[in-house]
Amino acid sequence: MRIAALFAALATALLPALPGWAEVRIKDIATFEGVRENQLVGYGLVVGLNGTGDTLRNSPFTEKSIEAMLERLGVGNLSEDSIKTANTAAVMVTAMLPPFARRGSPIDVVVSSLGDASSLRGGTLIVTPLTGADGEVYAVAQGPIAVAGWAAQGQAASVVEGVPTVARIENGATVENEIEFELTSLRNIRLNLRNPDFTTAARVEEVIEARLGGNAARVLDPATVEIALGSADKLDVPGVLADVENLLVTPDSTAKVVIDARSGTIVIGANVRIARVAVSQGGLTVMVREDPQVSQPNPVTIGGTTVVVPRTSVEVEETETHFTILEGADVSLQRLVDALNAIGLTATQTISILQAIKAAGALHADLEII
């Protein structure tokens, strides 16, 4: 028996099927190796701003870029003090090149201010080449930008909504070069699981073999399943991949409790189990109140002064506590949540209890605090 299949058999024997488990498509939990986006980046200028562009004194690279652009357009050499514009801003342009993007295909771009421009609203991006990690130009961006945020200011006050120095251009770039990748030349392809797990990988292997035939897939590691495509001349590779990505599989996951202590958010996975424990939550509430009184001298008193007499009252209230028993390892997620809610806890108290249960060795799950 293969190692991955052994893990799957052990998981099936030791962990009962839970109502929270659902079948999902393979395309939703895995990606095909080589079928991916690529990051593009470029440096450009946004013109046409209504006085909200870069201050050339504080952004010398903007001034140099304006001079270089004008020289390329045939404008003669400019003296250092001849550029006084405030309608131009230096920006970084980023985009994602989709897999199998062909020449002429449009893609979206994001434009972000690089200098001290206060807003990019109303601007137009000038032709900007977008390069990949290898330094090659794969797309060219240009066009009017759309800003979601806005800013208004006067001499003594200002209001800013959103981020007016970041904008998007829908279909603002055109693909000029393609990344060479031929599906028909593949003899096998690998599935990369987004959440590596032996049990999930074994289940993916099982459903693929049931669909394509025996020995069509094999698990390489917890994150990778290799699919044998056979002879590419006789096989419809895109059709096979489309068939595989729509197969349904039940993914498995490790037991985990995730806590965001800042917001009080608690997420408990369906596989979380606890040993039989008794939990009590309570404490003291101390209330201190200051009620100072003012003592005034009589009107005819000579040399009398007003005196503030402090008066402090302290009240101590002890919260009544009760023990609640949390059941053993066969408890469902719903029963666990109901038991925690029965104690009447706040989010902060629940976090403290879960940490205490973990410290006692009764929480059979990973406790992750973010």
TrEMBL record:
Domain of life: Bacteria
Subunit record text: The basal body constitutes a major portion of the flagellar organelle and consists of four rings (L,P,S, and M) mounted on a central rod.
GO biological process, one term: bacterial-type flagellum-dependent cell motility
Family under the similarity heading: Belongs to the FlgI family.
Signal peptide positions (record): 1-22
Cellular localization per UniProt: Bacterial flagellum basal body
Alphabetical UniProt keywords: Bacterial flagellum, Cell projection, Cilium, Flagellum, Periplasm, Signal
HAMAP family per UniProt: FlgI
Main location group: other
Protein's UniProt keywords contain Glycoprotein: no
Name this polypeptide is given: Flagellar P-ring protein
Role played: Assembles around the rod to form the L-ring and probably protects the motor/basal body from shearing forces during rotation.
Record carries keyword Phosphoprotein: no
Assigned GO CC terms: bacterial-type flagellum basal body, distal rod, P ring; outer membrane-bounded periplasmic space
GO molecular function, one term: structural molecule activity
Classification via PANTHER family: FLAGELLAR P-RING PERIPLASMIC PROTEIN FLGI, FLAGELLAR P-RING PROTEIN
